[in-house]
Amino acid sequence: MILLKNSEQIAGMRKAGALLYEVLQTLKEEVRPGMTTMDLNLRADELIRKGNAVPSFLNYNGFPASLCTSVNDVVVHGIPSETDVLKEGDIISLDCGLVLEGWQADSALTVPVGKVSKAAEKLIAVTEQCFFAGAYEARVGNTLGDIGAAVQRLAESQGYGVVRDLTGHGIGRDMHEDPAVYNFGIPGMGVRIRKGMTIAVEPMIVEGDWHVDYGDDGWFVRTCDHKLSSHYEHTLAIVDDQPPELLTYPGYVWKEEN
Ligand code: MG
Ligand code: MG
After folding, report:
1. What is residue 60's DSSP assignment?
2. Domain for residue 38, yes or no?
3. Could you say which ligand is closest to the alpha carbon of residue 63?
4. Preceding peptide of 250 cis, ω within 30°
């Protein structure tokens, strides 16, 4: 069941989203070679609690941390570790969630560690563009298929793969609500988008083939061909007939070219 939110409820989510934006921007600025993924997790946890929020990933289905740290060929759900040291040229996807006054926010981005290859830079940039292409379609009258098709079209036009196993999702009081938001699809197909829907759109884009393996720890998801993967996510709300409001990117204004 899709739970539509009224403007008061969306205002609550906006507050949670604004805090998560600050957390992820701070982490992004602090990523350096020589840090461990645990350093980033501890920092995320500290920043979330300082904002009077609670990390929503911690203990979610037993997940042991407040941040997912997914390095290079890890697509998502990497578990932070004291022995996992970042080195120059790595890319790291930081996925974070928090709950503030009962409302969830979920967002992710991929950050270069020091100087990275041109290929890695391009993958990160195109993944972000895929998000914006997809999210722009999240409008009253369109369908979820329009979002997925826009992500897929852009990714594949650049020779990249779209991970199929994981999807975006509705979000609100719970981190994962209906519907599933696929990153591939057919325009006009699927659930019709309505005012009051709040969803997380989160393309996971890979350099090579989109098939993934699952880690022995029951969590991490990695590309089978060990090529790089990038992730970008925002929580957004359909508030009117226009492109959506990005709750985890306060002040973002849509440009014509999207
Ligand atoms: Mg996320
Ligand atoms: Mg999510």
Report:
1. G
2. yes
3. 1
4. no
CA of 142 to the centre of ligand 1 (A): 23
**CA 106 / ligand 2 centre spacing (Å):** 5
CA 118 – ligand 2 centroid, Å: 27
pLDDT: which is higher, 89 or 218: 89
Domain-embedded: residue 34 = yes
Cα of 247 to ligand 2 centre, how many Å?
A: 13
Ligand nearest to the CA of 96: 1
Is 258 inside any structural domain? Answer: no
Q: What mean pLDDT comes out for the span 20-27?
A: 98
Tell me: pLDDT of 197 over 70: yes
Give, as one character, the DSSP assignment of residue 183. Answer: S
185 CA from centroid of ligand 2 (Å): 18
Q: What spacing in Å lies between the alpha carbon of 150 and ligand 1's midpoint?
A: 20
| Residue 115 Cα to ligand 1 middle (Å) | 25
Q: What is the mean pLDDT of residues 11-33?
A: 98
**Whole-number mean pLDDT of the chain?**
97
CA 108–ligand 1 middle distance (angstroms): 5
List the CATH number of the domain containing 38.
Answer: 3.90.230.10
Domain of 198? 7-246
Domain count, the chain: 1
User: Does the CA dihedral 216-155-198-167 come out positive or negative?
Assistant: negative
Q: Taking Cα atoms as reference points, which of 175, 4, 25, 203 lies closest to residue 98?
A: 175
Please tell me the distance between residue 223's alpha carbon and the centre of ligand 2 in angstroms. 19
Q: Averaged over 31-40, what is the pLDDT?
A: 98
State pLDDT tens for residues 122-155.
999 999 999 999 999 999 999 999 999 999 999 9
42 located within any domain: yes
- Whether the Cβ atoms of residue 229 and residue 206 lie closer than 8 Å to each other: yes
From the number of C-beta atoms within 10 Å of its C-beta (0-12, 13-18, 19+), residue 128 rates as middle
- pLDDT for 52-65, tens place per residue? 999 999 999 999 99
